[in-house]
Amino acid sequence: MAEKEIAVLPQLSFGYKDLEPILSQEIVELHYLKHHAGYVKKFNEAVVQWHEAEKKGDTAKLVDLQSALQFNGGGHLNHSFFWECLVPKNKGGGEGPKGILKKALERDFGSFEKFLEYFHSLANSIQGSGWCWLVFNKNSHHLGVTTTQNHGTVTALGLTPLMVVDIWEHAYYLQYRNVRSDYVAALSQILNWDGIEKRYEKALS
Ligand code: MN3
User: Fold this and answer.
1) Which terminus of the chain faces fewer neighbouring Cβ atoms within 10 Å, N or C?
2) Residues of each domain in the chain carrying CATH 1.10.287.990
3) What's the 193 CA to ligand 1 centre distance in angstroms?
4) 10, 40 contact by CB (below 8 A)
């Protein structure tokens, strides 16, 4: 065993029920306690195997472990970030950005509403499972919307993540069935724009 597990399931800043009616308690509980916790467990197991293979000098095993590390580690990081992007409706969820992020969204997308429209269209266009992101590009100094497949991360693409939405069926199927677009539209009502704006300010500094 490794001395200490590297990935740890983070505390949520809200209760399982607090995102209702947008996300049911059942969805949040399963998503957090089964799916996210599962990625944490499998990532930590892969790290232990990595250390064993390293000790043995087993190159083939090290190479084979790459995809488990990326998939489960990306799953853990992306879910941790997703939870941070959410806040209950009665605590400011969905209230759009007010300061410099509002101006930047207007500059890069025309308006906050047009940004949401574009974000929703890309989220709805993902084939299979993935994530839809609002990112900041430090080279161009512009905001962008991008998607990753499975548990791909945007840091791997050199982008700074500002906000993400989970577009795996497990994120919505129990409540929204096959109508992903309803889930994506409803989720806008619990996005934590205060936090997203703070992240943008930090990315600029
Ligand atoms: Mn998920």
Assistant:
1) C
2) 24-86
3) 20
4) no
Average pLDDT rounded to a whole number, residues 50-78: 98
How many whole angstroms from 146 Cα to the centroid of ligand 1?
17
The answer to whether the CB of 143 falls within 8 A of the CB of 162 is yes
Q: Distance, CA 80 to ligand 1 centroid (Å)?
A: 10
Q: Are 42 and 72 in contact (CB under 8 A)?
A: yes
The correct CATH number of 24-86 out of 2.60.260.20, 1.10.287.990, 1.40.20.10, 3.30.450.20 is: 1.10.287.990
Distance 190 CA to ligand 1 centre (A): 16
Predicted confidence (pLDDT) per residue in 25-63, tens digit: 999 999 999 999 999 999 999 999 999 999 999 999 999
Ligand 1: distance of its center to the CA of 148 in Å? 13
Tell me which DSSP letter residue 12 carries. Answer: P
Q: 122 CA to middle of ligand 1, Å?
A: 17
pTM for the whole thing? Answer: 0.96
90-204 under CATH 3.55.40.20, yes or no: yes
Q: Pick from 78, 83, 52: which is nearest to 65 by CA?
A: 52
Separation between Cα atoms, residue 142 and residue 108, nearest integer Å: 7
What's the gap in Å between 1 CA and the centre of ligand 1? Answer: 27
119-147 confidence digits (pLDDT tens):
999 999 999 999 999 999 999 999 999 99
